[in-house]
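Quick one: structure tokens for this chain, please?
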Amino acid sequence: MCDGSGRANTLARKVLCIDDNPDILQIEKAILEAAGYEVLLAISGELGISTAKDCGVDLVVVDSDMPLMSGTQVAQSLRDMRPKLPIIMVSGGYLPDEAALIIDSFVPKTEFVTTLVRQANRLTRRCKTCAFCNLPIQDEGMPSVSLKDGEEVHVECYSKMT
């Protein structure tokens, strides 16, 4: 948790997940903790903004559709507070047009189990992950192929894609 100093208590990257659904928060927490992140949770946009301000997070994952304060409003407040803070928006539906100009990445809730860690790693530059299998790409060891969109895949995975 946050110690109030604005610094992480561990060397892990700190991710703040904001969602009005506690079940979704627990799923996001489990996925990100399994990947080595320290995870803070906020059940509302207001609490999320306060937590981001007090705890010096490295990345925010925010739901687009929440009561009282939408994910777009939360993202804009966070962007105003910390312009370079990476923000991933998740949604069970579509990405609001106005949010597309604010956030760094969009992950549909139907895909966040397979995509959330890859996007978190990309935005925190923690490590490269294979765009096909989502496993880490090591600097040494298994060779990788760079794709046109900047993503990388293991050579073995690339052969499965073609």
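Residues 128-162 form one domain.
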